[in-house]
Amino acid sequence: MSGLNPKQTFLNPVIPFTGTILGGLLPGEMVLIRGSVPSVAQRFQLDLQCSGSVKPRADIAFHFNPRLEKSPSIVCNTMQRERWGREEILYQMPFRHGEAFELIILVQRDKFKVAVNGAHLLEYRHRVQLELIDTLAIGGDIKVEAVAFFASTDAKLEPGISFSGDLCIPFRGELKDGLTVGRLITVTARTNHDADCFCVNLCMSDSSDIALHLNPRLKKQLFVRNSFLSDCWGPEETQVDVFPFAAGEYFEIIILCHDHFFKVAVNGTHMLTYKYRVQDLKTITHLEVEGDIHQLNVKIQ
User: Nearest CA to 53 among 126, 130, 137?
Assistant: First the structure.
């Protein structure tokens, strides 16, 4: 897998973990999970879900549940409307206590194909529409080092632009040909040890207008979103369930252009949506980053 570039990654996620799959899953894509099984593990599960809802519980399109105690087996199932379907049980166990593993889920039009440590393990036919899956959840007795989502080699992706290294703050980069639905912007950096605030701006061409202003204020624990149009700030949006930033820590912000809004994830977890106040995405041509951060990396695709 080293020759492929993942479209999205989660590194060393804390278990239990729930993360948004940006762009969902498409036929031909792969999900790679590298981790290890603790020496006292009894069971763990990987769930491909239709949202991250807890109450009511989200539908689970594919529940992959290795059970290492007593009679080792792998149980696969689907949950819809909080009801489990018929279990599919494989009495085979490729996972070993205290050992590392690499698990790959290949997404096909009619089924998932699962391989562990390079060997085919099982197939699971879809019981839920593939288009509805947008969340990965991991729980139980498992340690995960990395999760990566790989696009199909046949997928027609827009060319990506990467800016790397110790980029100077303030930073201004061009969004070639403006934005379009489906485009991703990834900003990674570390906040300064005495950080107060920073901002990520998506700016309009040939004006001072800002279509999206993301402004974490660390000392006040506020995550402000706004737009600056026609020389005037609009109404602020500040509501988030958890403030995800801290002074002196690494962060990753991913901005996805959806049909009618920006979708923003921080450190692999969906945080918010922001309805477009500028409807013509192609007029958004620059990215600005400034404030109390360093070790900046930017990727646009």
Answer: 137
CB neighbours (10 Å) of residue 290?
A: 14
- Give the torsion sign (CA, 125, 148, 6, 202): positive
Provide the CA 200 distance to its chain's centre, in angstroms.
18
Find how far residue 238's CA is from the centre of its chain.
21
CA dist., res. 235 & res. 224, Å (int): 10
Is-cis flag, bond preceding 170, omega within 30?
A: yes
Q: What is the pLDDT of residues 134-177, one digit of tens each?
A: 999 999 999 999 999 988 644 444 445 656 555 789 999 988 88
As a residue count, the chain comes to 301
Contact status, residue 116 vs residue 95, Cβ threshold 8 Å: yes
The pLDDT tens digits for 94-129 are 999 999 999 999 999 999 999 999 899 999 999 999
Which residues touch 127 (CB under 8 Å, ≥6 apart)?
Answer: 61, 78, 80, 85
Q: Which residues pair with 229 in a beta bridge?
A: 232
Whether a cis peptide bond, with omega within 30° of 0, leads into 16 is yes
Strands 17-20 and 135-140: antiparallel
β-partners of residue 47 are 63, 137
Q: What share of the chain is helix, strand, coil (3-state, %, to 5)?
A: 0, 50, 45
pTM above 0.70, yes or no: no
Query: Tokens 């920006």, residue?
Result: 262
Measured between alpha carbons, how far is 101 from 33 in angstroms, rounded to an integer?
8
**Amino acid in position 138:** I
Q: What are phi and psi of 178, to 5 degrees?
A: 75, -170
- Tokens representing 257 are 């252009």
Q: How far apart are CA 84 and CA 190, in angstroms?
A: 43
| Cβ within 8 Å of residue 34, ≥6 positions away | 100, 101, 102, 103, 144, 145, 146, 147
